[in-house]
């Protein structure tokens, strides 16, 4: 197999072309609205299964873009996801990205209450007086807590990106989000991760 010589600026473009070609060759037809998100997640993971497992609530892309343009902030559950989000585009509309997981007050409260820092982070996030997008790629307890806060009427997210990876309560937590009346992008099953959460955020930001 011969190595291709491709300009650095063209690598991503060529990767996307390969992904779209292979999807087509395998008979995968993806709706235009969600296609950029699906392709970017596959690009991040090299895993074509996401073409089948990513689930989008009705009109979620349009709603998410409108929220970003209105100054929504993004809250993540890992600093890895935070570092991967294109904050310059977000800031152009008055938004910011946050991760509270490493905050001293979060860690202290989590120990006192004997809960995960992800739970406490969600409690802290809803105190922000701004529209909120949650991008959860690691902690299913964050999704479970969000569902509780939604049911209690304490928060109404503009979007929940629910893609935690793992084995304990992951599938169940994602199901809880898909069963509540908020816009969501969720990956069914055990797969996901911080890089997937960031990729989904960027797929929205790059469309503005």
Quick recap:
The chain is α/β, with parallel strands linked by helices and 208 residues long. It is 51% helix and 11% strand.
The helix content, as a percent range, equals 40-55%
By CATH, the architecture is named 3-Layer(aba) Sandwich
Strand content range: 5-15%
* Total number of helices: 11
Q: Which CATH class applies here?
A: Alpha Beta
Commentary on this structure:
By secondary structure, the protein is an alpha/beta fold. The chain has one domain: Rossmann fold, CATH 3.40.50. Helix content is 51%, strand content 11%. The protein has 11 helices and 6 strands. A 6-stranded mixed β-sheet has the order 1-6-5-4-2-3, sandwiched between helices. Helix 2 (35-45) packs antiparallel against helix 11 (194-205) and helix 7 (104-113) packs across helix 8 (117-125). 40% of the residues are buried.
Tags for this entry?
11 helices, 11% strand, Rossmann fold, 6-stranded mixed β-sheet, 208 residues, 51% helix, 6 strands, alpha/beta, single chain
Per-chain topology:
Elements: H1 8-25, H2 35-45, H3 50-53, E1 54-56, H4 60-69, E2 73-76, H5 79-84, H6 87-92, E3 97-99, H7 104-113, H8 117-125, E4 132-136, H9 140-151, E5 159-162, H10 170-178, E6 184-187, H11 194-205
Parallel strand pairs: 2-3, 2-4, 4-5, 5-6
Antiparallel strand pairs: 1-6
